[in-house]
Automatic annotation (TrEMBL):
Entry keywords, A to Z: Lyase, Metal-binding
Any Gene Ontology CC annotation: cytosol
GO biological process: pentose catabolic process
Domain of life: Archaea
Record-linked InterPro entries: Aldolase_class_II_sugar_metab, Aldolase_II/adducin_N, Aldolase_II/adducin_N_sf
SUPFAM superfamilies hit by this protein: AraD/HMP-PK domain-like
Domain Class II aldolase/adducin N-terminal: residue ranges: 8-190
Species whose genome carries this gene: Methanobacterium paludis (strain DSM 25820 / JCM 18151 / SWAN1)
Pfam families documented for this protein: Aldolase_II (PF00596)
Lineage start: Archaea, Methanobacteriati, Methanobacteriota, Methanomada group, Methanobacteria
Name of the protein this chain belongs to: L-fuculose-phosphate aldolase
EC number: 4.1.2.17
C-alpha cells in the first residue's frame, strides 16, 4: 500500500468505528505501519480529534521513534497520545501492521468490572479461551505502552483494565473487524448472563 492508500484506509476505518459507536467522543486511535522509501513509518490518527473528523489531511506520520514526518502548515496536529503504545506493538511483532484502540462501551464495561470476555469462534484458532487483561497504567504513558506491547506479543486482542481494548492484525481490516467482533461478543455475553439470571429467578419463584 502506498501512503495515499494508507491515509484513505485509516480515514475510512476511523469514520466507520465512530459511526458504529465504538469510539465515542474523542476516544480511540487507529494506526497502520507501512514502508516508504525503504524505511518503516507509522500513520496514526491525531491527538484531540474525534475519529469522526479524521481525514487524510490530519493523520500524522511518524518514524519508529515517534518523530513526526509530515510537519506542515496544513497539518499542525500531534500524533495520538498513545503513539508509543502502537509503535511498541509494531516493534515487538513483525507480523502486525494495523492496530485499533477503542473504548467500545460494552467491552469497556467488562474491562472496568474485570469480567472476562470469552473468546468466540470467528477469528482463526482460539489460543486463549478468554481475552487477556492488561494491568492498568495511566493512558498515554510508556508504562501502558510496555504493558500492552508485551501482552500482544502472542495475542491479537487485549482488554485494558479500567480503560478499553486494543486489537491488532496483519492489516488494518483484521484489526478493526476484531475490535468490532469483541464488542459484539461482549454484548452476547452480557445478554446471555442477564437472561440466564432471569431464568434462574423464574425457576426459584416457581419452586416456592
Ligand atoms: Zn484509550
Amino acid at each position: 500500500m502506498d501512503k495515499k492508500e494508507v491515509l484513505r484506509k485509516i480515514t475510512d476505518v476511523s469514520n466507520y468505528l465512530y459511526e458504529k459507536g465504538l469510539v465515542p467522543g474523542k476516544s480511540g486511535n487507529v494506526s497502520f505501519r507501512f514502508v516508504a522509501n525503504g524505511s518503516e513509518n507509522v500513520a496514526i490518527t491525531p491527538s484531540g480529534v474525534s475519529l469522526k473528523d479524521v481525514d487524510e489531511k490530519n493523520i500524522v506520520i511518524v518514524d519508529m521513534d515517534g518523530n513526526k514526518l509530515n510537519e506542515s502548515l496544513e497539518n499542525d496536529k500531534k500524533a495520538s497520545s498513545e503513539v508509543f503504545m502502537h509503535i511498541n506493538v509494531y516493534k515487538k511483532n513483525d507480523e502486525v501492521n494495523g492496530i485499533v484502540h477503542t473504548h467500545s462501551p460494552v467491552a469497556t464495561g467488562f474491562a472496568f468490572a474485570e469480567e472476562k470476555i470469552k473468546r468466540l469462534e470467528g477469528f482463526g484458532t482460539i489460543k486463549n479461551p478468554f481475552i487477556p487483561f492488561v494491568e492498568y497504567a495511566t493512558p498515554g504513558t510508556m508504562e501502558l505502552a510496555e504493558n500492552v506491547s508485551k501482552a500482544l506479543e502472542n495475542e491479537d486482542v487485549v482488554l485494558l483494565k479500567r480503560h478499553g481494548i486494543v486489537a491488532c492484525g496483519e492489516n488494518l481490516d483484521d484489526a478493526f473487524l476484531l475490535a468490532e467482533f469483541v464488542e459484539e461478543t461482549a454484548k452476547i455475553q452480557l445478554v446471555s448472563s442477564l437472561l440466564s439470571r432471569g431464568q434462574t429467578q423464574a425457576h426459584l419463584k416457581r419452586s416456592i
